[in-house]
Amino acid sequence: MQESMTQTANEATPDSFLSDLLDQQQSLTAVDRFAQTYETDGAPAGAKYYRDLIPISAPKAGQQYAFEVDLDACSGCKACVAACHSLNGLGETELWRNVGQLVGGTVELPVVQHVTTACHHCIEPACMVGCPVEAYEKDPITGIVRHLDDQCIGCEYCLLMCPYDVPVYSKSKGIVRKCDMCHQRLAVGEAPACVQGCPNQAIRIRLVDKDAVLDESEANQFLPAAPEPGNTVPTTIYKSSRPLPRNALPADYFAVQQAQGHLPLVFMLVLTQMSVGAFLVEQMMYSYFSLFLEDVAASVRPLHLGAALFLGLLGLAASVFHLGRPLYAFRALLGLRTSWLSREILAFGVFAAASTAYVGCALLDFFGLSISQGWQAGLGMGASATGLSAVCCSIMVYVATRRPCWQFPATSAKFLLTALTLGIPTTLLILLVGAATTSELTVHFVMTEYGRALCQVLLLVAFAKLLLELSAFLYLKGRQHTPQKRGALLMTVELGMTTLRRFFFGVVGGIVLPLMLAGKGNVADSYHPLFVGGMTLLMLVLLMIGELHERYLFFAASVAPKMPGVPAS
Amino acid sequence: MSTNSREQSSLSRRGTTISWRATDGPLTQELVLKPGKFGLGQVPAALQPDAMTQMVCGFCSTGCSLNIHLRCGKAVNLTPSVDYPVNLGMACPKGWEALSVLDSADRGTTPLLRDGRGKLRPVGWHEAMETFCRRFQKIQALHGMESIAFLSTGQITTEEMALLGALTKFGMGMVDGDGNTRQCMATSVVAYKQAFGFDAPPYTYQDFEESDVIVLVGSNLCIAHPIMWQRVLNNPHGPEIIVVDPRRTETAMAATQHLALRPKSDLALLYGLANILIREDWIDRQYIESHTSGFNEFRGHVAEFAPDHVASVSGVDVKQLYKVATTIHEGRRVSFWWTMGVNQSYEGVRTAQAIINLALMTGNIGRPGTGANSITGQCNAMGSRLFSNTTNLLGGRDFANAKDRRNVADILSIDASCIPDRPSWSYNEIIEGILRDKIKGLWIIGTNTAHSWINQNTCHDILDRLDFLVVQDMYSTTETVRRADLFLPAAGWGEKDGTFINSERRIGLIKKIAQAPGQALADFSIFRLIAEHWGCGKMFADWSDPEAVFQKLKQISRGQPCDITGIRDYQMIEARGGIQWPFAETDHHTPREGNLENHRRLFEDGQFFHADGRAKFLFELPREMPESPNSHYPYLLLTGRGTAAQWHTQTRTAKSAVLQQLGPRQIYVEINPQDARVEGIRSSQDVIVESQRGRLRAKAFVTPTVQPGQVFIPMHYDATNKLTLAHFDPYSKQPSYKDCAVRVRCVESWDDV
């Protein structure tokens, strides 16, 4: 339908008619023409619609404010979400309220139930417990769980802690924000935005007795298909005159959505565990190879420990990239009383100090300043012990979220085995480097005395770890679409390639290469020392890539509990 | 509250940027609220208005009023108006987000012309106008005056519709032009016109609150018109709510009776109800005798629709049919409402009239809480019905009637010979006209034909046959703009003045409270600019601004059922909280106390617009749907509104990050668990849905809310109409979007969709 266009090279000066129209278009006249009738001040005109939807008095002792949602009245228009967004001036994509849906019932009587949900202003807010900088506070009078935006460092730990997916992270601001029940409005007798915005008056604020809420949380009377209320004791009351059918499921129940990969945390966890692992292996070498200290250690210890320390510090540095506002990271110890994240940070701080001291001591020793054996042993023990406790804190950081995929047995096994999986080859590699650089040691000696044993242990550790990870796929057989099954589904479909790579690197680095190095015909005899060193380096690199993949999957395939969502989301 | 002391103490710490504890600071300040004044309550401090004005929303036909918060004359935020007789302080998400969709990178900022290499490139208005006129005039010279046509919208102001209709038909020599309102309410127009003698929805929203029985046919009010549902919930009489819908919708959930009938058995079911009402003598004989005609014939017609027969056709059992009939009989104020489930049907006009018949025979019309009431779609569908000058001559007149033509010519001071003597082709006839080489040039204004027209693949093929396609829209990225030769950037709602007329006949104002991006111009200005360049500027010299045109429309309406001569000016509309037509000069209107009381309904005197003053019973035998499910395509595809946050083709709603998050992001198909088991489909799995005409890939949503044998896909996704079958109501020419046969299967590795 094209026809060749003759182009006017230079457009004629726009006639005055056009420029008049363009000028008119840009002049805003509504104020001059119509605004005079609205010169009103005074009380909010909408109060008459919401007066009955907020309590007349402040909470008494033992009480707090809570949302009450009348499910019979919630028809799924989602005006509450938009009202909350506009009346609170939220960021473009930021939503503090959401509406999901439950479907179920029979062919004869199908049921669709929309569910509006925001922060539940829990009696025991997990966000507050987990926050390392005490950026959450539960108002002693109203019970509203408020987020202190200027206190936040943007660690996003509350996102992992909250079972209801409530806090919203803003990349541009570097902080988290969340529903504050419009406490500023309630303070002056106005209804929260969602209450004001619901055409069906389905949301109201009421006073609840905290004890009653606690009792009800025991009986699991929150909302079918929602995360169980026992963990945080949410205060929102969902009431309905018609019980939901037993087969009611969230509309997004079968949707599996990849979670965030948290790369800085992936590196932080793997590197710190590698570092702790290296210290641990060094300590074990003391115990099991009594000659180790005299024969070998003196020459390669500074290198070994230095490398371990460097890896640890690198890992800690990586964690900073995770923060939205790293400048304020120094606040991270405020939450020690409740937050495993604070404890983790402290523990790694202590570990860094202890291991630095140990490394310093080793260096002094290396340069001939005699340091007493007792001191060295003590510092060595200290570095290992603090490192181990720091890794335990890491474990608890994730266990504390109570996500089914991050339960204690699996998480602790993964983290500790990572420490060994990477600590052992690191040690072996350093020994070989030592052998290459010092005259007292040969590759042959290192391999026959220690290498074979180390490789055998590594083989065992790596095999156990891979087996453990494989066991996650057993959940695929389950009928119920549990978070673990969703995680396994993610790892087979969306994250399938990552999973494949993980096992490839794990098997080659943790089984094939150790088998070769620990094989009967001693490699050190048959191959050039440089080749042996290369193999060991390759083994370490492959194992490390494998562990990084494993940790990425740890986050990306961790399915978080949440309130019901919408289909095809 | 308790935070005061904290805030004070933190103030003293301000200035020290690094502190252990910061309970206040720039981030905290971002969320501080301040009194909004103007009766608004607390608003975000950064968006505190210095002035406020009200205007009606620009999405659906509910016609809610919004308080626009202004700063230095510009809109910064909005809240629903509190004392407007439509929405009582509430809005749906689209209303709340009405401003944010204006601000989008997709907005057209300059005209775009397709160059020799097939790319749309920016040009100035002058070149755009020259090209527009040259190309269209050339087509007219080659193929005749009637070889160019336009397709317009229910989303521009009444004044713009009138100017467009007058410009094209009186000034440019076009005969054919229709609106996308053909896709949403043409059926109601024809049904009312034939039954009442004029296209006149009789109700006021207050009727939702005054009924004791509310019958909703093919209407998911909760999702499509949430604010009307608000009015239902405001009803203090504990009404019976009867929903007739094949799907278990939100509205069906909230109903007291849900008739989950088989698709397209609605006509038989409604006749069946009439049969029971007559059989039991539950009819208002006096009303029938005094105010209607054709009842005896109707009685004979419905005699065939015995309850047993209707039960077997509709799948609704006899007991349930009797229960509904009894409820209607026992109700003192029964209102009947219908929406797209009725309108978008190949026998929609007769179905709508079957509803009208129920209201007439039970005397449920002209009284509070009653009526046979069509709920329309777009914000200004009603404006288009009265003043778009497309199939009707301005003011609900007849092109074929010489007296009407002379009348309009006199009012507008133009030569009567300028006025075409036949009504326009309807939308589908224009599309067919392109196929038959009768239409060679097309001007599309404010609608997304390439997305919304039925049987999309064919539609695309047909649009591509045009010699010249001009698309005028707010956004330069719609599916239709992508096929255009020339794009004209339009200012949208909120960037211009004018009036809309809502479902209950209420005229409301829209105002210029935001600056249009770049060189975008109000449709009104574009039409004037075209008039100048076309050479008929003189004819429209005094169509200088929207309010001047409004004064002309008043004159045009004089003596018509839609007489609005009593409306002084925009200020009066503003002051009264909108004004429902008719509002004649000769009426004696003493404004009632307060805007909320400002409502009126039609036919209170039992006088209809036919010459004999009576309403007609109209009826016809139901027909089979043309493409019922069969062994190759075993499922019936239903389409419709998905969520309250999505509007039509999502041209606007997709531009709001909030609205985007409220609806499913990708196309999905609802399928019953029984069928899903048979097809081996799990929820959230990708499936292929195909009809004889096309296919699409969608996420499966397994839900019992659709019946076995049926699937549902929302209309908002661009692929939906690849499946639909182009068939139309013979009277209204409205497309029947809700019945065609499809099959559903899992995605195979070789599928390329």
Pick out its properties:
heterodimer; A: 569 residues; mainly alpha; Alpha-Beta Plaits; Formate dehydrogenase/DMSO reductase fold; 2 domains; three-stranded mixed β-sheet; 10 strands; disordered N terminus; B: 753 residues; alpha/beta; N-terminal domain of TfIIb; Rossmann fold; 5 domains; 27 helices; 29 strands
Q: In the CATH hierarchy, what is the class of the largest domain in chain B? A: Alpha Beta
CATH topology of the largest domain in chain B: Rossmann fold
The CATH topology of the largest domain in chain A comes to: Formate dehydrogenase/DMSO reductase fold
Spans of chain A of 5+ residues with little confidence (pLDDT < 50)? Answer: 1-13
| CATH class (first level) name of the largest domain in chain A | Mainly Alpha
Secondary-structure-based class of chain B equals: alpha/beta
Q: Give a count of the beta strands of chain B, DSSP E runs of length 2 or more.
A: 29
The strand order across the widest sheet of chain A is 8-1-9
- Rounded average pLDDT of chain A: 90
Which class best fits the helix and strand makeup of chain A?
mainly alpha
Architecture of the largest domain in chain A in CATH? Answer: Up-down Bundle
Largest interface: A-B, 111 and 137 residues
